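Dear H.,

Thanks for agreeing to be a second pair of eyes. The structure we're designing against is below in token form, covering all 444 positions.
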């Protein structure tokens, strides 16, 4: 996981550089500076290196390694006129602080044939190219900077929408926003990457790290950096921004006032402060009065300590949806001590009893979470707070928890809703976008 336990090492490893300075620009409202224009207070050095390996070292090993990398950095980094300068070689610079949901502003100026980038959450990278260098056209350098170049071939965000680089000798400015793994990049005020999932370079089977550092990658030629500012985004604002993306494509199925348009265990749920809440000590299925085949559902939910509920996917309208429906997606306070010994397929976001979701992406208990669920044919994808925690084809599942089959997993349509389990879990902003039939379904 990202570096959590090494910040105490940094204080003795700060690289201080003597320089002639101009004052750093004032950060915009709501932002703070990551570079003070004078020295590297708040930064440490590291080459291209898996942060999980550094975190796994003993304290002594880690301290020695950080010191070694800093000695290397001293040979290649300077501060001039309030600018952070690298000669194109050596270890990279890494913020001591880690960030979860945030907005980053940074300016850079580089030279021909240089090749650099910005690691986000310890992961490569927002690419910086010499877009005029023919030797790298085969790597798509001619498309310009700003893409998430280490995403898989053909993946959204790998290359920028437009060429927005300025001529050499001019300063370029990035605005980068990360909501979970959802990454948007503006280069010189032009949107070049829009809400793309940044892949976990270190383990593509896992989501991007929940938190991580910003890292300045340098190689191939001199690059200068200045005016590096960050604004951390609250969970509430992150939810609003996630919900705003393509919001016009979704239809609300909850009016925020009563349970009109819903059926099932109506007496076991109530509407409180614009949210549907399962009554404590009650449960059962609460379902939208419409059957869906392929769809995307968006919902915000809030868990009480130890809270347990579920999302009913393609329910037939009766029975235990985990078995009679396509699946029940767990809604669970996974880190509560009473759930320490569950089967992995019982934690939040999992297709109950069939496929385990990745853990560690819930907001603190008592805060609202944003979740998007895509059901397309036999596949189901769960995105929690901007991180894909489950992406599975249920038609391929052959091993079940407690060896209990799920006869409903191959259902092609059904009802969406909630599967209460006695806890006052809350849901709001419930929206659905219908999708076209799959090729197989259309052929029937």
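And this is the sequence the design step returned. I haven't edited it by hand at all.
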């Amino acid at each position: 996981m990202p570096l959590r336990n090494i910040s105490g090492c940094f204080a003795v490893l700060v690289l201080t550089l003597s320089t002639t300075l101009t004052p750093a620009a004032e950060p915009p409202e709501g932002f703070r500076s990551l570079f003070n224009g004078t020295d590297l207070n708040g930064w440490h050095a590291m080459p291209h290196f898996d942060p999980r390996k550094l975190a796994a070292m003993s304290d002594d090993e880690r301290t020695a390694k950080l010191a070694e990398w800093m000695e290397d950095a001293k040979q290649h980094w300077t501060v001039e006129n309030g600018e952070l300068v690298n000669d194109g070689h050596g270890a990279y610079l890494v913020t001591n602080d880690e960030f979860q949901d945030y907005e980053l502003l940074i300016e850079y100026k580089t030279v021909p044939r240089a090749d650099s980038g910005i690691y986000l959450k310890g992961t490569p990278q927002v690419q910086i190219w010499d877009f005029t260098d023919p030797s790298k056209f085969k790597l798509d350098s001619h498309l310009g900077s700003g893409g998430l170049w280490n995403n898989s071939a053909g993946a959204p965000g790998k290359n920028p929408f437009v060429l927005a680089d300025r001529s050499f000798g001019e300063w370029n400015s990035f605005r980068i926003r990360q909501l979970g793994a959802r990454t948007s990049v503006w280069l010189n005020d032009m949107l070049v990457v829009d809400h793309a999932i940044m892949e976990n370079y270190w383990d593509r089977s896992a989501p991007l790290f929940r938190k991580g550092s910003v890292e300045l990658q340098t190689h191939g030629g001199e690059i200068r950096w200045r005016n590096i500012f960050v604004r951390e985004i609250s969970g509430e604002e992150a939810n609003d921004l996630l919900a705003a993306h393509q919001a016009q494509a979704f239809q609300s199925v909850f009016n925020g006032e009563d349970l009109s348009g819903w059926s099932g265990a109506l007496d076991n749920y109530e509407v409180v402060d614009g949210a549907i809440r399962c009554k404590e000590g009650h449960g059962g299925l609460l379902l939208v009065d419409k059957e869906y085949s392929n769809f995307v559902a968006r919902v915000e939910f809030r868990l009480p300590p130890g809270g347990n509920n579920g999302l009913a996917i393609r329910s037939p309208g009766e029975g235990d949806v985990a078995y009679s429906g396509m699946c029940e997606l767990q809604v669970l306070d996974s880190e509560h001590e009473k759930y320490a010994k569950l089967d992995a397929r019982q934690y939040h976001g999992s297709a109950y009893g069939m496929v385990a979701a990745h853990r560690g992406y819930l907001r603190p208990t008592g805060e609202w979470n944003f979740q998007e669920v895509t059901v397309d044919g036999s596949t189901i994808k769960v995105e929690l707070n901007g991180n894909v925690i489950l992406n599975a084809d249920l038609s391929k599942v052959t091993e079940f928890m407690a060896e209990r089959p799920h006869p409903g997993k191959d259902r092609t349509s059904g009802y969406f809703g909630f599967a209460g389990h006695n806890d006052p879990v809350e849901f709001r902003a419930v929206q659905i976008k219908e999708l076209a039939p799959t090729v197989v379904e259309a052929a029937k």
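Two observations from my side: The chain has six helices and 26 strands. Confidence is low (pLDDT under 50) at residues 1-23.

Warmly,
E.
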